[in-house]
Amino acid sequence: MSKKNYDLIATVDIDIVSPIVDDTSFDNMLIVGPAPSVAPETAPPDFGAYRSLDEVLDTGWSLEAHDPIAEAAQVAFSQTPRPTVLYIAPIKDTDTVQQGEGQDAVMVVSPLKAIERAIDSVKWYVLCTAGVDSTWYEEIAEFIEAYDKMFVYTETEYLRNNKTASTGAVYNRTVGVFGPENGTQVVADMPRANKYMNVAFTADWLNYQPGSETTAFKQLTAVYPSELTSTQLANLAEDGLCYFITVGNRNITMSGKTRSGEWADVIRFRDWLKNDMQIRVVNLFIMNAKIPYTDEGIALIHNAMIASLKRGQVMGGIARDEFDEYGIRIPGFATSVPLASSLTASEKASRILRGCKFRARLAGAIHFAEIKGSLTYEL
Q1: What is the DSSP string of 10-28?
Q2: Do residue 226 and residue 349 come from a single domain?
Q3: Are 127 and 154 in contact (CB under 8 A)?
Q4: Enclosing H/E stretch for 299
Q5: What is the pLDDT of residues 100-148, one digit of tens each?
Q6: Which of 230, 264, 298 is the last residue of a domain?
Q7: pLDDT (tens digit per residue) in 363-372
Q8: Does residue 113 sit within a domain?
Q9: pTM of the predicted model, to two decimals?
Q10: 197-205 vs 68-77: helix axis angle to the nearest 10?
Q11: Domain check: are 101 and 201 in the same one?
């Protein structure tokens, strides 16, 4: 091949600048529960991904032995559509727990170690427990509150325990789902699948994109609905607990709040929006040689904010522009950024841009419709 000598006239060097590919998931759950009751030849991984019930069973968990992880996975993969992947972190550790003043400390199996091993993974968003004693729920809820994740558990003793939930009503990121078939049913008499009502609830919920959904009115399979009195339903709703009942000829979820009283879908959408906006701004810095501290550079960040908020409208979490009765537009969101001329020299020298703000109207969801009318012979 002849030498072309192009380099005598011009040189061309091409750099490939690639953006961050975000793999943060808001669609997958993590199940934490006991290791297989019969130890397999190869222990399950501390944090594993499973795409079918067969994969879970092949790892060592057994339905015949009533392993909670196996039963929870069966409930998860029974939902329609079924999860594309299920993450599992088996409990393998013990903690020293002081039982009371003057009593000896004892070693107990702790789910917190398994959760801590998996907490930094961005591949899952909602933690569900299976076969974990309810005395751990408060500690788990407290732990999860510090992260951009959520915790969903099955509430089994609420109506039998003087309307006392397993977690305090202070957690934005914890959802309790009532599992018994009625207000007096003890755990031993519950259908086995209902112990994993939290898993069925979560598997169906995460099938929808953040912002497009509400956790209420979802039809679950493989679990039995509760038959509750109006007073019991009111107690559950008032205390921020979800439940699964029959309405007409359909079995559907109701409520949809976290333990603090906030809507679970709002928390999920907020986490998604935060992540989306962060990634867009970070990619600006990566994809450009620099972002100048000028009106032009500030506008780039402003545009990234707007793009994320518009995506939030498409997802269904942020309201679109509307008009009042006078034809005045009500924007779905409003943004503001500072002008470069309004910032001091020391602020520019710090290379930190502050004062970028937005306000957005939640699209929300209608959970109840009240309609009144009258019949007359004349209008």
Answers
A1: ----------------SS-
A2: no
A3: no
A4: helix 295-315
A5: 566 655 556 789 999 999 999 999 999 999 999 999 999 999 999 999 9
A6: 264
A7: 999 999 999 9
A8: yes
A9: 0.92
A10: 40
A11: yes
